[in-house]
Amino acid sequence: MTEETQPDGQGSFVVEEVNSIIKEAIEATLQTAAYQHSRVAQWTSGITEHCLKRLAGLHRPFKYIVTCIIMQKNGAGLHTASSCYWDNTSDGSCSYRWENKTMYCICSVFGCMI
Amino acid sequence: MHEVQEEASYHIRPNFKNKFRPVVVKKIIDSVLQEKLEGAVYDSDKISDYVSSITDQVKQKLKEETMDRYKFIVQVVIGEHRGAGFKMACRCFWDSDTDNYAQASYSNDTLFCTTT
User: Fold this and answer.
1) What is the band of A8 on the pLDDT scale with cuts at 50, 70, 90?
2) Within 13 A of A20's CA, how many CA atoms are on the CB side?
């Protein structure tokens, strides 16, 4: 009797699909808006929740972490890095950068297989 | 005749002792940030080195803790203090019994740093 250690089909994190999900979430929420301090909180929550809903809707055996950073364009520098201790064959991450005239938006998704 | 008792050898949930403890992890992150960024000035050439070394050091310290079978994700964001507005949000889809997060920030005159 042979035992399978990995489920059929969805064996690992699919970067392209997640990338398109993030892109749609950002474009739907921010569209052509200009940076407004009063609305940023709403935007960041909206983008992360939209992404998470779509990711959960894929019905994959994954745990997800979605982070979203919105920064005003002011000449300031920003650096972000992440380090992950996981199983490289099944887990992965995806990062998408979007900008318009007044702000930058960086959204990252990390997925860990259960 | 001996009766063989079978014990579960595959644990799905961690023991109470091996659970992820946010308070302990926050202290680790605080100490790493304090050590690395004390008196640092934002310099666009060197900042990428800072960022990678902070993530690697935090991850290394987490591996030394007694949290078996956990996967870790460490994210570090360093920005320059130039009056720009900045907002960061995070949402997670996980098992809230076993999984958790810890977050710490450090700020000085020229830069701010957030680590999760």
Assistant:
1) very low
2) 4
User: From CA A46, how far away is CA A23, in angstroms rounded?
Assistant: 13
Query: Which two structure tokens, joined as six digits, stand for A65?
Result: 């972490």
Q: What is the pLDDT of residues A29-58, one digit of tens each?
A: 988 889 988 999 999 999 999 999 999 999
What are the beta bridge partners of residue A111?
A64, A92
For A47, nearest residue in chain B (alpha carbons): B89
Q: Tell me which DSSP letter residue B43 carries.
A: -
Q: CA of A40, closest CA in chain B: separation in Å?
A: 7
From chain B, the residues in CB contact with A78 under 8 A are 77-80, 86
B-chain residues near A43 (CB < 8 A) = 87
Instruction: Name the helix (H) or strand (E) containing A112.
Output: strand A103-113
- Longest Cα separation, chain A: 63
The whole-angstrom distance between B7's CA and the closest CA on chain A is 21
pLDDT at residue A3, rounded to an integer: 47
Judged by a CB distance cut-off of 8 A, whether residue B90 touches chain A is yes
When pLDDT is cut at 50, 70 and 90, the band that residue B2 belongs to is low
Interchain pair B91, A51: CB under 8 A: yes
Where would I find the H helices in chain B?
22-37, 47-64
Percent of chain B whose predicted confidence (pLDDT) is above 90: 32
How much is the pLDDT for B14? 78
Q: Residue A77 to residues A15, B43, B108: CA-CA distances in angstroms?
A: 27, 9, 15
